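User: I'm putting together notes for a lab meeting next week and I want to include a structural view of one of the chains we've been expressing. I don't have a solved structure, so I'd like a prediction I can at least talk through. The sequence is below, exactly as it appears in our construct file.
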Amino acid sequence: MVMLEKILSNKWNPVVKLAKMLLPAFTNNFNGQVELLDDLNDHWCAAPHKKERNWFIERTHDLALKRRLRITFISGDVHAGGCGVLFSGRNVAPSKDHRFMLAVITSAIVNAPPPPAVITIVNRLARKKHRTLFYAHTRENMLPLFQYDLEDKKQSNKYIIGARNWCAAYIDESTGELHFDLHVEKSKGSGETKVYSMKTPRPQYGAANKQGV
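Assistant: Thanks for the context. Below is the predicted structure for the 213-residue chain, given as C-alpha cells.
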C-alpha cells in the first residue's frame, strides 16, 4: 500500500504524467493530486498514519486483555469491501487470543468503487506479509473472503472486492460469537446483494491468564 502511495505521489512518474494528460478525472481539481491518492491517504495503513495506527492497536490489545473484550474495527470510505485480521504471532486459538481482531472494511454505500485495475493492484498487495507489528507479537493478514465473485465464479482477487456494500453485525446469543455480514451489491442500482460472512469467537481469556507475550 505504501509503495502504491509513493508511485502515485511522484509527479515525475511517466505513467502518472501520461494519465493526467489523457484522463482529466485521474486528478482532483483542488490540488492536482491523483484522485485515488486521496483514498489511499485515508487508509489506516497509509504512511502518515502508520505510527499512530500501531500505537492504537497496541492499546486496544491491552484493553481487550484487561477487560476481557472482543474488539473489532469497522472502517470504510475506500469504496470497496474486505476484512483484515490481527492475531498473535504464536499458535493460539482465536477464542483465547486477545490480539485476535477483525478489521471489517465496508464502503460508503453511495460511492462508486475504484476501477477494476486498481482493485487488482490492491489485491496483489494484500497477499504480502505485513511486518509493522512484529515487535508487538502481532501478525496481520487480509482474509481471502472473496474466493467466489458476485456471480459465484472462482476468482483470483480474493481479498478486496470492488463493489458497493454495507455491513450488518449481530451476536449469536447461543455461542457468544459476533457475526459480520457484508452485503455486496451484485450490480449497480439493482438492490440485490450477495452476503460474505465473518465471525469472531467469544473471548475466553483474561488478565489472570497473563497472555502478555
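A couple of points you could mention at the meeting. The CA atoms of residues 27 and 34 lie 4 Å apart. Confidence is low (pLDDT under 50) at residues 18-32, 208-213.

User: Perfect, that's what I needed.
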